Structure prediction request, 483 residues.
Amino acid sequence: MMMEKIVWNGLDEVFRPFFEKNQVSMLIRGLPGAGKTTLALELMNIAKYRYNCIYISTRVSYSKLKEQLPWVESILDESSVLYISDRTARDGNGDARSKNSMLDLRLSTADNLLNMLMDILINKRRAFIVLDSWDSLAKEIPLDERMKMEKTMLAIADANDGMLVFISEEPERNTLAYLVDCVVTLNVEEYDGVWLRKMRIDKMRGMPIKRNKMVYTLHNGRFILTSSNANVSYVSELFQPVPSKQGYISTGNKYLDGILGGIKTGSVVMLEVDGSANMNYARILTSNIILNNVRSNREAIVSCGKDEPVIKVLNKIVPYCLSYDLNRLIVLASPAMDAEQEFNRLHELVTYDKSNVPEDIVIHTSNDPTESTALFIDSYIRLKDYSRSMVIAGNLIWNEFDEVKNRLLYTAKIARNNDDVLLLTVSSCGSIAENASILADVHLKLWECNDTQILTIKKPFKSVYAMNLVGNGYPSYTLLPLL
Prediction:
C-alpha cells in the first residue's frame, strides 16, 4: 500500500546535538539486515552541511547503493564512495588496477589502510567517513596492531575535525566500544508474536541520553525512529468522511482503510487495548469509525463503558459534526454514572454549527440486564434504516465476560443479520478478550513499547504499525508500517 510521507520524531533530534559537540567517532553494531548502513547514511545526511562525506564499503558499489537507497544521491556521488573489493585486475606491468574504480582489499594492510584514511582526513578536512564494515576492512590485521591503528585514526580525526563512523557485525570481537564517543546497537525483539526493530544507545559521550531504547522501521528504505504524541490539541473543524466502498464501511481513516480495505458489513471488530496503551488512542480510533458513519448519513449507537463518562465519548464526536448528524446518534450511558451530572456536562459541548447537544441523544441504562437490553432494542429500532449499515460500538474495558456474554452474543447476531458493524473495545487483561477474539472478524490490538503506540492487526492477517496522533482539526492518526 502506498502511503504519503509521514513526519515522525526522528534521528535529527537524537543525534544532531551530538554532532554539534564536535565529537569524532561512533560505532554502529548489529546483525546483518538490521539497518546499520541505512542508519549511518541517515546520520551522514544530518551532518552533511558540516562535513565532507565519504563512504568506504566492502559491501556495495555506488551504483548498487543508489539502487537500494535512491535518496543517497543527495549526499554522495561516485567520487565520494570507495568500494573496496578483493577482485582486481592487473595491468601489463603487474600493478594493481581495479575494475570500476574499486580498491584492492588484499592490499589493505594496516599501513595502507591507515595511510588512506589519514590522506582523506587531512586533505578533505572535516571529513565524515563511514567504514562499512570495519570488521571486513580490518579482519586481516592482528588484534594488537588493530587497536593501535584505531587509536591513531581517532587522534587524526580529532586533529582534523573529522568524524569516523564504524559499522560492525561482530560486536563480540569488536575493540572499539570503549574508544568511540557513541555506541549504537540495533537488534530485534519479540513481543506477543510480533518482531520489533529496536535501536539502543549504549553510550553518548557528553550528552544526556533521554531515551536509550527506541523502536524504528526501515519503511521505504529510510531509517525512521518512532514515538507517539501523548495528546494533540485540535481547532474544531468539520469531519470530512472517507467514502465507503460497496459492502463495507470506512474506518474514517485513510491509513487504516488502506490496510484493511474498510470493514465489511455484518462484521464484528474487536479493538483489544493492552494495559500499557494510551486509552486516548483507542477512543480516537473508535470515534473515527463512529464519526465517519454519522457524517456519511448512517447511524451509530455507542454504549459507554462501566465507569466511562458520556462527555469522554461525545467530546471526540460532537464538535466535528453538524447538528443534523446527531439525529443519527444515540449514546447509552452507564448506570454507574450520575445522570443529572452527565446531562449538565452536555452543555459544555456544541456542534460544528454551534448547536447544543439534544438531551435525547443520551439514554441512561439500568443495572438490570433485561431492562438495558430493552433500551438497546428500542434505540436500535428508533435509528435503524435497513438500507444503510449502522455502527454499534461498545466499550467493555471494565467488564468481565460473564457480565456481558448474553448481550454480546445477541448484539453480534443483530449486527451480522442486518449488515451492521459491531465494534468492541476490550481489555487485554480481562476475560472478554479471549472469548471475543473467537467472535471477531477483525482483531486489532493497541499497545505501547518504548514511547510508541503500536497497532497490531491480528485478524484477518498479521501486520504491525506505529500509531501517532495528528491535529487535522479533528481527532485523527497516522499509521507507519514497522518493517
The longest strand covers residues 194-204. The radius of gyration is 29 Å. The CA atoms of residues 195 and 473 lie 34 Å apart.
